[in-house]
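Human: Here is a favour to ask of a fellow structure person. Comparing notes only helps if you start from a blank page. Give me a protein, with the fold worked out from its sequence. Please set it down just below, with no commentary around it:

Assistant:
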Amino acid sequence: MADDGSAQSTTVWPISKFFFEVKWDKEVMSFQEVSGLDTESQPIEYRHGDSPEFSVIKMPGIKKFSNVTMKKGIFKSDNKFWDWYSQIKMNTIKRVPVTISLLDEKGAPTMVWILANAWPSKITGTDLKSDGNEVAIETIEIVHEGVTIDND
């Protein structure tokens, strides 16, 4: 008898990446694409003068987080990106937590990334083409001070 897949373990297939949710503070927003969930630990190179090895040792240094880029369609009278960006005054901005959740087929979070103290550093409006046949997309680049992962 053929296997219909209903009895498969949840560890057989990886999670699809097309069903996700983004929250700014407490407001849920819809996006077409989210990228830049990168982090790295910058290496520190060191060698002391009487080392018998003719090479440096490498130690973990300061952590560095990439900017997160989010893209969404433009809707009539939707100025959320610009409203948040316009709050930047004399080096001050309202910093908010941004939560990005990868959802399962039932809409429950399976993988959650939380960006600490996030704020917008760049907004890119759509390009306009008289012969275009695409949706108008705007992009926001978010700066943050760290990412944590919550998989409960």
Observations:
- The longest strand covers residues 109-124.
- The radius of gyration is 21 Å.
- The chain has a mean pLDDT of 89.
- The chain is about 5% helix and 45% strand.
